[in-house]
Amino acid sequence: xxxxxxxxxxxxxxxxxxxxxxxxxxxxxxxxxxxxxxxxxxxxxxxxxxxxxxxxxxxxxxxxxxxxxxxxxxxxxxxxxxxxxxxxxx
Length: 90
Fold this sequence. Notes:
Blueprint: E1 2-7, E2 14-17, E3 48-50, E4 53-55, E5 62-65, E6 68-73, E7 76-81, E8 85-88
Antiparallel strand pairs: 1-2, 3-4, 5-8, 6-7
């Protein structure tokens, strides 16, 4: 679910999601974009994370996703966020 963006302390980004937020942080889920600046994480329809645990996808279920990432530059490190996207499972 989208919300008005909320600034994240110590970050250049803003959180655009609300509700029971889940995180993808198990081994193999924290990724590096490398020099290309992009990454992809395959999420199984039976492994959607929410604050309450794992939820299977059902028809017409809508989920929103947003990535939070580290930025390392000449001035030091910070973090930022992507725009949020919403997917509808069919």
